[in-house]
Amino acid sequence: MSFVLYDVETTGLAKHFDQIVHFAAVRTDADLRIIDRLQLRCRLMPHIIPSPEALHVTELGIDQLTDPSLPSHLEMVTEIHRVLQSWRPALFLGFNSLSFDEEFLRHAFYQCLQDPYLTNTQGSARADVLGLCRLTAALRPDVLQPALDEHGHTVFKLKPLAEANGMTVALAHDAMADVLTMHALCNVIRTRAPEIWSQFMRFSQKASVEAFVTDEDAFLVSEMVGNQHRTRIVTRIGQHSGQAIRQYCLDLTADLDLLGRLSDDDLVVLCKSPQRPIVTVRTNAAPTLWALYDALPEHFAPFDEAEVLERVTSLREDRSFQERLRRAAQAAEKVYPPSPHVEEQLYQDGFPPPQDKALMAQFHSVHWEQKAALARNFQDQRYRRLALRLIYFERPDLMSVDLRQTWQTELHDRLMAPAEAKSRWRSIPAARQEAERLISAGLDGEQLIRQRQFLHYLDTEARRIAMGTAA
User: Which of 109, 140, 421, 425 sits most deeply, having the most CB atoms within 10 A of its CB?
Assistant: First the structure.
């Protein structure tokens, strides 16, 4: 299988309401030799206001994001989809990608009427190089050392991690530079710790994760709690009653007697806390797992391996206790209310009907005049709305005056929402407040110039929208 390593730079952290502005990827053969590359940028969509913090971190100026010579977001995403589709099947790799880059890419595909599940269908799979690096640092510190912050705490951010291991990183927060840094880390681990690389590959497959979690009496799992990484020895106690990909595993160092005395309600409360004794392993998310024989003494503390396995035996004999724990873990899962915003409805209403899938393919193969006619034929309200929005963004002249005015009013209300409204998206007043706060914290030089230029852009946009000339 080939590999695709990719990275995105975005206007902010909100996967539903920010956008990708820079995408880079390399395709390699099975030996990680690069055989193809892709790098694309695009301009801002009309309804997106960038985060001042994102502009500060990426050192992008607003003029770079509004450059009319750049392709539109739709044009960029369409080309990304075409190329990645031609590179399949592949193992798609990113750094912290399963919680960030992958979600941005999925939602970009969704909002542009493309298949959002390109990276894990038709023989492809996905995995996260961040997990690979954590696993390597834990098991083979002779191969990879974590970076340290100013307080001596371990850090697994891409640039510091690479530099801590003797790699020169020319740029940070540049998509292609980050891809090549990630590629270098993978090469080191694959060459010097092939057993870890093989294990990493194995757990990119959902079926392999399911088999391992089910068959092993106990194993280690790596997870993030807030910004802190921790490793726990666990055993499987069951799965979600409606989502088989969610496997519940109990921390074997937990106080089992205490858990047994808690009421069902108290168990649920505990499972919602940072001290939760149950880890949810998502079998389709390439979890970071390893076998018990690779555990270090500190992983077993305050027990030893024999005592941990005795606890597994005792637990397995008490099926009613296991079921109580499983029910508590499931009851503690976050339940998200339905969202009225189309950007947040990808997972909410399931897959589109077959006829809408066919319409999506047709939508991308015809001229804009025909796209406008097709848009109203979508049965799924999500895709009808997204199709009409794309037409408004790209060719508003093809809309009726009334429909164009409706979208223009919606754009005005979205972009001019008061900062105190705490909208799901970033409005112009909210961005202005953020930028002024950043400036007052003490910027100078080019950083200060960029933020002042951004404030000027916000003022210009606000005037344009107020005059009713927003496109």
Answer: 109
Which residue, among 201, 202, 228, has the nearest Cα to 213 in the 3D structure? 202
Note whether 237 and 320 are same-domain residues. Answer: yes
Q: For the segment 363-395, what is each residue's pLDDT rounded down to a tens digit?
A: 999 999 999 999 999 999 999 999 999 999 999
Asked, for residue 93, whether it belongs to a domain, the answer is yes
Does residue 215 have a known ligand-binding role? Answer: no
Residues 362 and 252 placed together within one structural domain of the fold: no
Query: 463 in a domain, yes or no?
Result: yes
* Residue 178 assigned ligand-binding role: yes
357, 381, 399: which is the final residue of a domain?
399
User: 91 has which bridge partners?
Assistant: 3, 125
pLDDT value of position 228 = 64
Give the integer Cα–Cα distance in Å for 173 and 7.
9
Q: What is the CATH number of the domain that holds 156?
A: 3.30.420.10
241 and 194 co-located in one domain: no
My answer on whether 358 and 300 are in the same domain is no
List the alpha helices (DSSP H) in 112-251.
129-139, 158-164, 175-192, 194-202, 206-215
Looking at residue 268, its pLDDT comes to: 97
Q: How far apart are CA 54 and CA 74, in angstroms?
A: 21
Q: What is the pTM of this model?
A: 0.93
9 carries a ligand binding annotation: yes
List the structure tokens of 407: 């979208």
Q: How many structural domains compose the chain?
A: 4
**Angle between helix 428-440 and helix 445-466 axes, rounded to 10 deg:** 160
User: Which pLDDT does position 471 carry in this prediction?
Assistant: 44
Task: Give the pair of three-digit tokens for residue 342.
Answer: 């189309």
Helix axes 381-394, 73-87, angle to 10 degrees: 120
Give me the pLDDT at residue 371, please.
95
Q: Is there a domain that residue 210 lies in?
A: no
Same domain? For 170 and 38 the reply is yes
Would you say 266 is a known binding-site residue?
no
Same-domain check for residues 391 and 409: no
- The Cβ-side half-sphere exposure at 383, using a 13 Å CA radius, reads 27
pLDDT at 470: 43
List, for the chain, all residue ranges whose pLDDT scores fall below the cut of 50. 470-471
> What is the spatial distance between Cα 99 and Cα 92, in angstroms, rounded to a whole number?
14
The residue among 282, 275, 259 whose CA lies nearest residue 213 is: 282
Q: How far apart are the C-alpha atoms of 5 and 151, rounded to whole Å?
A: 32
